[in-house]
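User: I'm designing a mutation panel for Methyltransferase type 11 domain-containing protein and want to avoid disrupting the core. Could you give me a predicted structure to guide residue selection? Please restate the sequence first so the numbering is unambiguous.

Assistant: Good idea. Sequence first, for numbering, then the predicted structure tokens:
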Amino acid sequence: MEGLFDKQATIYLTTRPGYPRKWFSKLAALSPHHYLAWDIGAGNAQATIGVAEPYKQVNAGDTSEEQLKHSVPHAPVQYLLTPSSNLRISEKGRGTLPFPFESVDVGCEDFWSFSPVNTAKRQTVDLSSEEAVVYSEARPRYPSEWFSMLAALTPQHSVAWDVGTGNGQAAISVAEVYEKVIATDISDEQLKQAIPHPQVQYVHTPLEMSDDELVSLIGGENSVDLITAATAVQWFDLDRFYPIVKRVLRKPGGIIAVWCYGSMEFSPEIDAILRRFFDLGKPFQSQSFKIASQCYKTLPFPFESVGVGCEGKPMELDMHKEMSFQGLLKFLSSLPVVHIAKEQGVDLLPEELLKDFERAWGEPESVRAATYKTYMLAGKVKL
């Protein structure tokens, strides 16, 4: 393995991406002291120089002397050759990585995601303002009858909370049947694209916000009639989120409803190419994405059923949207798995696949009907 690295050191140097500086700032914020850091398997030091910004000294070790010859010089960095007898190279994949450390809200053992953030509020791939616009345009609108169905299940309609609201596509529909909607998201860029509505209050909930602060923001304990999470709950730290739900939901009478859409259907020919696309993305799916792709059948949902699915058996619903060819490409490009793969240098929408989509679609200007298979769970706090 060392020999392989030696021969490819120059190629490795020119092809590897640079890591965003904000990652290292986030990690530095988690440690009270910033005297010494150790970057293991430093390679050409693409991570080391980022670590050296917030830390005074960085020891950077690697088993490949050739790699270290190509490392980027930096005053606080000491490069060290560490023979493989000291640090064995593992052939195991990332999905089998043991990680026997207490979580600091940046992932945990048996839970992999490209995003360096995992909180009670939401785990997400950061979106630029341009990406947030694409996300807003590409997502389907939820049918109004869904919200009428949910409203019929709560005796009061004073306050609703839409969690992980994104561009507010669910929040504005909730507002048609509830007097006030608090719509929260950790993404400020998403909220800038949110759809205005007089009864919706959009609130940015930064990662630093405590559970008590969030409960107070929503309205306090026993105050919320309906909580919704539209294609979002799979990103949450459920061990923290569900206790918050149980605190703020009105008892009795309040309910939580979560849903996601799985497969998208057009025609047999287009659907076959869509399956190819999603197969390409499987190696880059986080555990959160898999929960959605499994139609919430594996989602823990510790609430008493109100007749809209139950844990392990979500209710299946259909959602329809008229879509152009460009709309389809926007939708696919907005999926988190595409961003995750792109950050790792893999294009899930290569030219060949796009040409296959175009041939199957027919006239590029034609509009087709898409059917989204959607899965919903709703429940109340068990008393």
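For picking mutation sites, this is relevant: The CA atoms of residues 296 and 314 lie 7 Å apart. The radius of gyration is 23 Å.
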